[in-house]
Write a structure and sequence with these properties.
3 helices; globular; Jelly Rolls; 272 residues; alpha+beta; 6-stranded antiparallel β-sheet
Amino acid sequence: MSKSTRSFAVGSTICALALVAGAAPARAELVAGWDFSQYLGDGTLVIDDGSLFQFVDTLSANYSSLDPTFNAGAESAAFGTMYIDGQFGSTAVPAGTGAEQFLPSYSDPGGSLVSNLDGPVEAFGDNAFDAHQILQFEGQPNAQYLAMAALADANVVFEADRGTPATGNWILSFGGKTQSGNSSVAVEFSPTGTGYTGAGTANLTTTDTRYEFDLGPAAGASAFVRLRFSVSSPSIPVIDNMAISVPEPGAAGASAAVALSLAACARRRRRA
């Protein structure tokens, strides 16, 4: 085999590997996720903190790739919070009054939406949502198969905070459906919790469906996602298994390297 032939063969192999790498999905880091299993049950914003039952209008994340134990449980709470207390443009839901616009729901069938159960699974060994044994082992008193239903117009805000600036774009995914008919949920993004910009709309139907949105550049350590529910009876929207992610550290550099390799392959093919 001549030197030029060997060079072409090696170059072709590198090009093939670059194409495979370019086709592979980018690895992501789940910063904060919620399966809403912390609530006591259907229709009530009550959690058990281990000593007493209490109405709450915020909810800590219970999944995160940054959680050093099983990517789920107690340590995940540091990386995310859901707000329905009026903060960051959320609706102040009157927990415990019977007039709540946003509540836990036993979604049929099974109590939990399944379309985004694998939202936290970014690597071998990661736990999916509804990992109740892990959550209880980590000290979560309740572990219910619950989704969240909007009974009236409401704005719900989810904050993810990885502690240090991220690279790439923030990504949101969740499962959604309606109890009947169709409903639209507007998705908005802000790096600071003010000045939200639209990121798209989830058009919910009675089919349990996974929705994913590219929220925009991760310029800092935090992301605020606001879901705007516009509810018209009887089309009650239901969401579950919220996941806010960013590319894994180094993924952006790897993508750039693949792009350079593909460009070199294109030049080699033109010369050939």
